[in-house]
Amino acid sequence: MITSLPLVDLAGAAPPAPRPAAPEPQSAVAASGLRRIGRLDVAAITGDEALAIIELSIEARSELHVAFVNAHCVNVAAGDERYAATMRNFLSLPDGIGVDLGSRMLFGEAFPENLNGTDFVPFVLERATRDLRVALIGGEPGIVETAAERLGERFPRHRFLPIQHGYFSGGEETEAVIRLLRLVQADIVLVGLGVPRQENFIAETITAREVPVAIAVGAFLDFSAGKVPRAPSAVRRLRSEWLWRLALEPRRLAQRYVAGNPAFLLRMARQWLGREPSGDDTSP
């Protein structure tokens, strides 16, 4: 069932304007370069550079899809052709110590910044040069409403629009979500459906007609709503938040981290040794 939209002021929504053709996301970072980690091309850019790309897309009302790549994403892409192909059209930002280790092994240096979604999205909201309309999709029932309320308190100059929880199916239910998203005329939509569903959903259903910038945010909405607590700042400074999350949700995350991290390191070693020159290995 589609959720209600209590925070939307439809009277304030501007009618759709003509949109220019969307540039390839990778072209925006050509000068800084892309780094192939497994099967994924990750942008070697700073937070300020990524923010500038997002703001340009909002200003031009041109399509931009953004995702965050961590070790788990690299592992998923190794065995999921649909997801790997989808990510070729995303601006993929480096998330976490895993991809930094991969970058050091393969390119001799870490990424310029760790641009994980839980910190980068607030950075965008804090530094944005214009007031934004931000739509929210994902999480359990009630999460987007709570997240919208809390984000509104934290960033009062922006308007947060709870569109739909994450428990909707394809077909008519997805079409209803897209119609509602098109109606509210947001500047950004944050989609938290988990990897790879959120990226596939964005790629297959969201265009500049609905919203210029779509960002796949993983658990950001859960964090924003207070459903999942962030790790203490000391743990985050050590870049060990994954251990904190594993301790909180061992059953759900054991496969991702306990089995996934060694698989990722093995995959990076194979790529470094030249056994995976194209990053197309699908072995564990």
From TrEMBL:
KW Nucleotide-binding (keyword) present: no
Pfam families recorded: Glyco_tran_WecG
Membrane-spanning intervals of the chain: none
Superkingdom of the organism of origin: Bacteria
One function term, GO molecular function aspect: hexosyltransferase activity
Alphabetical UniProt keywords: Glycosyltransferase, Transferase
PANTHER family noted in UniProt: PTHR34136, UDP-N-ACETYL-D-MANNOSAMINURONIC ACID TRANSFERASE
Protein name: Exopolysaccharide biosynthesis WecB/TagA/CpsF family protein
